[in-house]
Amino acid sequence: MTKHYDYDVIVIGSGPSGRRAAVQASKFGRSVLVVDRRGKVGGVSVHTGTIPSKTLRETVLNLTGWRERGIYGMNYRVKQNIDAQDLNMRLGKTLDDEVEVLEHQFLRNGVSVEYGSAKFVDAHTIEIENPAGGSRRVSGKAIVVAVGSAPHRPHNIPFDGTRVIDSDGMVNLDRIPRSLTVVGAGVIGIEYATIFSALDVRVTIIDQREHILDFIDREIVDDFIHQLRDQSVNFRLGGALESIVIEAGQPVAILEDGRRVRSDLLLYTGGRQGATGDLNLAAAGLEADERGRLDVDPITFQTKTPNIYATGDVIGFPALASTSMEQGRIAACHACEQPVPPAPKFFPYGIYSVPEISIVGITEEEARKKKIPYEAGVARFRETSRGQIMAETQGFLKIIVCLKTHKLLGVHIVGEAATELIHIGQAVLNFGGSFEYFIEATFNYPTFAEAYKSAALDVWNRITPRHAGKGEPPAISPESSAPQRMKTESH
Ligand SMILES: Cc1cc2nc3c(=O)[nH]c(=O)nc-3n(C[C@H](O)[C@H](O)[C@H](O)COP(=O)(O)OP(=O)(O)OC[C@H]3O[C@@H](n4cnc5c(N)ncnc54)[C@H](O)[C@@H]3O)c2cc1C
Ligand SMILES: NC(=O)c1ccc[n+]([C@@H]2O[C@H](COP(=O)([O-])OP(=O)(O)OC[C@H]3O[C@@H](n4cnc5c(N)ncnc54)[C@H](O)[C@@H]3O)[C@@H](O)[C@H]2O)c1
């Protein structure tokens, strides 16, 4: 006899992965319940993470006139006195709009939403404690754990919500500090550090590591750090934090080697951990690792209890809104016994710092480590007409190309629109294209995208022997030899 459940799919968490899982399952005609304890849909992504930080960035760039400073000088400002209210106004509107879009999406797709904190009773049943103190039990044939993550808060950090805060505390600041210390130079720390530096706040970045952003191509990071130093950002790298004390009302970060950094506000961004603490995982036959993360099958996103799936930040790397959404969709397909779409080989990484960084594919360092013969081509944004128009003096784009097959291996960008531009490279990579595509293709003019063509020509110039009187690259036809070689060789 088939067992009856209240819902075909229960999703715990309404962030990017939970939302995608819920909508996908409902598109397959399944009954779906989403449970979230926040009281509003959207998850960390909408309320404290991706959307607030990116809205803050956009507000700061607009109000400071950052993008125009190349033309009008570093003292140029659109609004002279920018205060916390200026920053929060746009934030409130954006978040409200996001929530409305999500609520409407759930409604249109017949997804039920219930607010309350969920915990397992057994592998098919959860108990939902609602904010008023009551509770009820519901059962689901499949359960998707999409509870996300929360800032890691070590006991020795004196968080007080005003002088020492984590990234959740950056939403709705009641004042703009004159100086900011950021402890932890991961993506979150770097994004906020550079956004506040663009506001002319004096920023110091502390990290125990000697090298920051070690998954990014070194040349990009070196250029990025150079630009930040030029903006007067201070770095205290290679020294772990020993303690934080409050002196004369200001937080002072004391490093193991004795260095001290005093500021108005200290932001601690030393990593995140899976929000599994309240789930009573043992009742469902599950346990989390020391960072609260769940282990899953990388193809189906099933946990070791097969009807329970886990997606998004709760499974750890890469912990992005973008990848979380795809994980949610795949888990829903599997839970609804539909074909599971394979995840594309390459996904981009976007760091919304000032300036932006975005990457897809492998770095030069990885190419060397894997002993892949490669060549790199670089194009500076200032060499494009768009760069001239926008007075973009700094950004550049770099492509990595396999010397044997001419296939594109990686794209690395620092500068304006990097997080948008990267998708051109991503498409070529996922379709297994060669760098000659960029030479042959016609791009809109004037655009930053032309930098792909210049970088490809840079590669061409480096790998093609020069003959007297033949300085220009020949027109490369679709029948030219490089794409032919691609079919038989592997990179
Ligand atoms: C400051 C910051 C900036 C970021 N910027 C970017 C970016 O630019 N690009 C990008 O791709 N990613 C970014 N990220 C990462 C991105 O926000 C996360 O990868 C994404 O939100 C993870 O989605 P998720 O589906 O795991 O759920 P989350 O968005 O983490 O949401 C989980 C939800 O589950 C709910 N929940 C938890 N436990 C329970 C329970 N027991 N019962 C009921 N509900 C529960 C929570 O209330 C929450 O609403 C950023 C993150 C931060 C913190
Ligand atoms: N644009 C984006 O895609 C984006 C933006 C923000 C966050 N995220 C995601 O959020 C996740 C978490 O980011 P995060 O930056 O909090 O964590 P992280 O783990 O990436 O970085 C933490 C950093 O803090 C340092 N650190 C930790 N403890 C320290 C101490 N006591 N003293 C000095 N340094 C210390 C570590 O060396 C590390 O460099 C990332 O995995 C990322 O994928 C993505």
UniProtKB/TrEMBL annotation:
Tell me, what's a Pfam family for it? Answer: Pyr_redox_2
- Please state where this protein is localized: Cytoplasm
A GO biological process of this protein is: 2-oxoglutarate metabolic process
Q: Is the keyword Nucleotidyltransferase in the record?
A: no
- Binding residues for FAD: K54, D313
Q: What is the first-listed, main subcellular location in coarse terms?
A: cytoplasm
Single Gene Ontology MF annotation: dihydrolipoyl dehydrogenase (NADH) activity
Cellular component annotations (GO), alphabetically ordered = cytosol
Which PANTHER family does the UniProt record give? DISULFIDE OXIDOREDUCTASE, SOLUBLE PYRIDINE NUCLEOTIDE TRANSHYDROGENASE
What name appears for this protein in its UniProt entry? Soluble pyridine nucleotide transhydrogenase
State the organism named in the record: Acetobacter nitrogenifigens DSM 23921 = NBRC 105050
